TrEMBL record, chain A:
<keyword id="KW-0396">Initiation factor</keyword>
<comment type="subunit">
    <text>Component of the eukaryotic translation initiation factor 3 (eIF-3) complex.</text>
</comment>
<dbReference type="Pfam" id="PF01399">
    <property type="entry name" value="PCI"/>
</dbReference>
<dbReference type="GO" id="GO:0071541">
    <property type="term" value="C:eukaryotic translation initiation factor 3 complex, eIF3m"/>
</dbReference>
<dbReference type="InterPro" id="IPR027528">
    <property type="entry name" value="eIF3m"/>
</dbReference>
<dbReference type="InterPro" id="IPR045237">
    <property type="entry name" value="COPS7/eIF3m"/>
</dbReference>
<dbReference type="GO" id="GO:0005852">
    <property type="term" value="C:eukaryotic translation initiation factor 3 complex"/>
</dbReference>
<protein>
    <recommendedName>
        <fullName>Eukaryotic translation initiation factor 3 subunit M</fullName>
    </recommendedName>
</protein>
<dbReference type="GO" id="GO:0001732">
    <property type="term" value="P:formation of cytoplasmic translation initiation complex"/>
</dbReference>
UniProtKB/TrEMBL annotation, chain B:
<keyword id="KW-0396">Initiation factor</keyword>
<dbReference type="InterPro" id="IPR024969">
    <property type="entry name" value="EIF3F/CSN6-like_C"/>
</dbReference>
<comment type="similarity">
    <text>Belongs to the eIF-3 subunit F family.</text>
</comment>
<dbReference type="GO" id="GO:0001732">
    <property type="term" value="P:formation of cytoplasmic translation initiation complex"/>
</dbReference>
<dbReference type="Pfam" id="PF01398">
    <property type="entry name" value="JAB"/>
</dbReference>
<keyword id="KW-0963">Cytoplasm</keyword>
<dbReference type="GO" id="GO:0033290">
    <property type="term" value="C:eukaryotic 48S preinitiation complex"/>
</dbReference>
<dbReference type="GO" id="GO:0031369">
    <property type="term" value="F:translation initiation factor binding"/>
</dbReference>
<keyword id="KW-0648">Protein biosynthesis</keyword>
Amino acid sequence: MPTVDGETASLSTRDVANASVTYIGSVSDSDQCLHLKIYLLSLGANVKEEVSDDLPTDFNDIMEGITTLLDSQVDTDEMRSALYSLCTLLMKCMKSGLTGYISKLCSMFEQNGKQDNAGIRLEILQTLSFYELTSDLEKTEIFVTSLKLAKQYKLHDRVMTDIQEVSKLLDTWKVERDGRIIIYRLIRDIFIDSQRNDEAAVVMLELLRSYDDHNIASSVEDAKICVIDALKNPEIYLFDYLLALKPISNLRGELLYDLLNIFIHEDLKSYVAFYEKSKEFMQSIGLSHEENLRKMRLLTLTSHIAKAGDAATFDDLAAALALEEDSLEQYIIDAISCKLISAKIDEKEKKVIVKWVKSRTFGKAELKQIGERLLKWKNNLHLIRKNLSTISQTV
Amino acid sequence: MAVSSPLQLSVVIHPVVVLTICDSYERRNEDIEKIHGTLLGKVEKERIEIRNCFIDDNPTASGKKKFNLEEFQRLFDLHQRVYPNEVIVGRFSTGDQIDDTALAMQALFSRVIESSYVAFPIHLLVDTNLTDSHMGIQASVYHRYGVPGNDNGSIFTPIRYAMGYYPEEMSASQLFQRNLAIGGIAPVHNDMQHVIATSTKIDELLDEVLKYVEDVTAGNTPFDSKIGRSLSDAIMAVPQIDQSVFKDMMNNSTQDLLMVTYLGSLVRTQLALAEKLNTIL
């Protein structure tokens, strides 16, 4: 969503749900059909020239000819207004109680057409999803088709991919588990294609959350992708949140699960030992050993500093990280810049003075500590308020 | 690159626009139901920021008066003098649905000012009737449909938008919300009251967080390490000061502040006195 000086309020779901399409025609339905038919005929489509008085019959006939339009070379504006004409006819058919047209249109849009008109197809689909007679099931189908089109034609900015908004919509449409999995996978692919890895990771989590006991068996592939993506991401260092996901704890017993556990709990030595033992596996999942070493060094540094308390000496750290003392400093700086620790380097005394350390796993004990700090904060705040009220009364 | 599809647009509406529409609606002639007008704003690539609007010359109930193009041009020129970089981005109307007049106006606008009209004109529908006691705001894009040579009608397709606030607008709308909460007119806070109000707010939020922590440690709420981590990040960002040190700091600055306020009022009194003396003498 766009921002103005950092402040936004996005369109609430209620407003989306209430939005409606308005169309106002200036000719009769049969004239509109006739115009479209003549136009399609001029493009070489195989449609009947005469119109019946029955709108659905005409509409079906026109639908047959639309593929010709989609594959033709007409310019954007012309295509848009012709397709909108079709769109209004479809809405009129739906108004007279006929169903099934949206599915038909979705599959037609998915299979036919050129790159040039993919954007317009997306527009038409979006318009139909706002129409009041479109059922939730049809809206879901439209959304899936739109995502597929966006992925196929690389129109990533034309579909809604904001994961929170999407989840909200899926809730309102009451989309079942399997539908969600399909949608989340598509969104993940779109993010990967447009190199937005962080967002892809978020979608992946949402995807894994959609699995439950009934279909956990089919989650293995997704779970593996999720773990590998996370390990690959150079900006993610803490992985304990992954263990809470069922599909991932389901991987227990696999090498990947062991590797993940090393990244969560263990140190550099265990990683190196694991690597020596399972070199082939490491190659098969495509993780870079160098990058892993870097990550593991930072993580080992973090836990070492956490154990050491207020200060840690260079010697100890260098030994734990299997490094020369010269290259140690770079790792400390890296750890500070990626916010694993907050510390100062004391060159003279050859030690690191620690302010705080992020814990690699986050449990209830840590939460309790936070609780205590919050209480302290609250008390300080009370003091401020008391003082200020006295002052404001005096003033 | 030019915008080729309305799906790329990101529409931002400033609260001033909605308030102006409501205000104009309130001031309309008694015998008319709906008001119509023009939206102005800034267009930057795919971003349309609706920042201003003005209403059409009010038609009377006695008959549909023709749209007063001269009046419109006059108002628009005046606007241009104040905000030269704002262009016409669309139209607005009130009510719960887009009516024929709104449609006719859109058609007229795309004809009359075709060259300077945006590629995808916006229509803003503000439900001043408060259907379902909710003021719905809907933004749509106006399209013509039909085939070459045969124009068959118009369609308005909804489009997502966001409300955008400048800092001034933000504080004003926060003030309005306070009014709503107390059901009257809340006084504008001075600096001190602002700080107190904000710290009260933080206090409430802290209570909420503390409750969550308690619930989790007691086992009533499932534990989520993600929330825990964000909490810890937030706390790390706040400087940790010991309570006694903090007390001293606070007291010292309080004394300073009181001193400054005292001196300030002293100066003010003196000035007032001098002025009085001057007038008497």
